Amino acid sequence: MEKERRSQIKTGVFVLLGLGLFIGLVYILGSRQNLFGGTFKVVCVFKNVGGLQAGNNVRFAGINVGTVTNISILNDTSVQVVLSVDEKVRKHIKKDSKASIGSEGLMGNKLVTITNGSYASEQIEDGEVLLTIKPVDMEDVMVSIKEVSDNAAELTANLSDISEKIKNGEGTIGALMTDKTLINNVNSAIVSIDDAASSFDRNMDALSKTFLFRKQPQEEEKKK
Q1: Which of 31, 85, 112, 222 is such that its CA lies 20 to 30 A from the CA of 45?
Q2: Whole-angstrom distance, CA of residue 175 vs CA of residue 201
Q3: Residue 181 reports pLDDT greater than 70
């Protein structure tokens, strides 16, 4: 009899714990979905939702204010996203606010972000359609990065090939760089130019002295 009573007590405790956990879970999920408070509906139309799913968060001014309740394809170029947003923030969301799709962190879950509108604009109405901003597609970004990387690798390989050919004396530049006769001729030409410049300087100096020598007697005669 006593064992049966203990068994019933244990069963009752487990039932109460399970019920408490269930109620807590329902409350948490309900809070996230705004089931226990007033909400209003916002509609957005995107060309590509980029992996956004129903149940993902809606964020305004960096704060989670609602969830994505439904995603449906309107046509081959439009996807409709319905948001459920907390009624308390409706006064802050304006008719000229815009919605965009982002992510929580670099590779986190997708979310919808609503931007601040202008101060003079009226607040949004229930069921109103917001303007949207085209989301950044990470796949396109990765493809662009790969193309840049491939181009850089190809350019490096080409420069290495050109450098090797020049080193081996191939091509016009390589021949110019490795032809000893041409190099000696260039050096001789440089020496000749340097000698000519020195000779020119000496001649100019001599000419200047001659001119001064002739000029001095003339000045002395004028003084007399």
Answers
A1: 31
A2: 36
A3: no
Give the whole-angstrom CA distance, residue 138 versus residue 146. 12
Give me the amino acid identity at 119: Y
What is the crossing angle of helices 171-178 and 138-167, to 10°? 40
Give per-residue pLDDT as tens, 131-142.
Answer: 998 766 656 667
User: How many separate helices (H) and strands (E) can be counted in the chain?
Assistant: 4, 7
**Cα separation, 150 vs 161, whole angstroms:** 17
Comparing 56 with 37, which gets the higher pLDDT?
56
**DSSP letter, residue 106:** S
| H-helix or E-strand spanning residue 77 | none
Residues 6+ apart with CB under 8 A from 117: 93, 94, 95, 96, 97, 98
Report whether 49 contacts 70 (CB < 8 A).
no
Separation between Cα atoms, residue 129 and residue 181, nearest integer Å = 80
- Given the structure tokens 């607040």, which residue do they identify? 123
pLDDT above 70 for 208: no
Tokens coding 1: 């009899």
Q: Which residue has better confidence, 56 or 170?
A: 56
Q: Considering only 27-41, 51-65, 85-99, which range has the smallest mean pLDDT?
A: 27-41
